[in-house]
UniProtKB/TrEMBL annotation:
Gene3D superfamilies: P-loop containing nucleotide triphosphate hydrolases. It holds the Pfam family ABC_tran. The gene is phnC. Keywords: ATP-binding, Cell membrane, Membrane, Nucleotide-binding, Translocase, Transport. This is Phosphonate ABC transporter ATP-binding protein. InterPro entries: AAA+_ATPase (IPR003593), ABC_transporter-like_ATP-bd (IPR003439), ABC_transporter-like_CS (IPR017871), ABC_transpr_PhnC (IPR012693), MetN_ABC_transporter-like (IPR050086), P-loop_NTPase (IPR027417). It comes from Hoeflea ulvae. The keyword Translocase applies. Residues 2-246 form the ABC transporter domain. One of its GO terms (molecular function) is ATP binding. Belongs to the ABC transporter superfamily. The lineage of its organism: Bacteria, Pseudomonadati, Pseudomonadota, Alphaproteobacteria, Hyphomicrobiales. NCBIfam families: ABC_phnC.
Length: 268
């Protein structure tokens, strides 16, 4: 379980990016974080693993106060928080397999990581994960030979090989076409369900969030503006979060047929 208690971040520039955000995310829950540009979504995700240092408040993961950890403790804790990025953050000249295995760098010793010698169990797990995300046949390809959707699958496998307790996902579909975006969101949500893994997904596309997650949290100017089920999203809620606009095409009619329900097909 992840608990955020009165999490606040004021940057040195004086920007109040987060103000008193209190949230509890149970084990296995996938939560989408929405809100206008500058609302504090990326800051919130980065305060959880302290890539951004919170100004005040606390982050508690399964009883451990992440905000109180020293640098050694934080390094260990970060292994338990897998991160998936908008721009994938792959090492372009390395293969798919090497990129996935790099998710184990926090676990293997210095020399093993320097020599990129991973235990066989890690290699076996990397193959299993590549199979699961539909990229087994691409294990030896270089990352720079992949499409955006394939890159994001590598990013997902790299986060999962850490065997995390929590996934932090920052705009996973922002660089992808609509169909690939759905496939990637579905894959992330399926994998969380399979592993009883909680996730916080920062996402701009409200309809996509509604399609896949069980809880949506809206941020506005660093404060919580909505916390509810996808079915509770309405024009009024969107107006509260984003301001006045015609929302007709933005929210998903929850009664719509799901036209694309097949499991993620391998993209080879
Ligand atoms: N490193 C920084 N230094 C100073 N201010 C920052 C920094 N990073 C973010 N901010 C400010 O904090 C606020 C929240 O930014 P943040 O990037 O968290 O929002 P966001 O909701 O993720 O936006 P977007 O959807 O555009 O990515 C904004 O006012 C932004 O200008």
């Amino acid at each position: 379980m992840l608990q955020l208690n009165k999490l606040t971040k004021t940057y040195r520039t004086g920007d109040k990016a987060l103000q008193d955000v209190t949230l509890t995310i149970p084990k296995g829950q996938v939560l989408a974080l929405i809100g206008p540009s500058g609302a504090g979504k990326s800051t919130l995700i980065r305060c959880i693993n302290r890539l951004v240092e919170p100004t005040s408040g606390s982050v508690i993961l399964d009883g451990t106060d992440v905000t109180a950890l020293s640098s050694g403790g934080l390094r260990k804790m970060r292994r338990q928080m897998g991160m998936i990025f908008q721009e994938y953050a792959l090492v372009e000249r390395l293969t798919v397999m090497e990129n996935v295995l790099s998710g184990r760098l926090g676990y293997v010793g210095f020399w093993r990581s320097f020599l990129r010698k991973y235990p066989q169990s890690d290699v076996d797990e990397a193959f299993r994960l590549l199979d699961r995300v539909g990229l087994l046949a691409m294990a030896d390809k270089r990352a720079d030979e992949l499409s955006g959707g394939q890159r994001q699958r590598v990013g997902i496998a790299r986060a999962l090989i850490q065997n995390p307790r929590l996934l932090l996902v920052d705009e996973p579909t922002a660089s992808l076409d609509p169909k690939t975006s759905r496939q990637i969101m579905r894959l992330i949500c399926e994998l969380c369900a399979e592993r009883d893994l909680a996730a916080v997904i920062n996402i701009h596309d409200v309809a996509l969030a509604q399609m896949f997650v069980e809880r949506i949290v809206g941020l506005k100017a660093g404060e919580l503006a909505f916390d509810g089920k996808p079915t509770e999203m309405s024009d009024e809620v969107l107006t509260t979060i984003y301001g006045e606009e015609d929302w007709h095409a933005t929210i998903r009619d929850v009664d719509d047929e799901e036209e694309d329900t097949v499991a993620v097909e391998p993209v080879l």
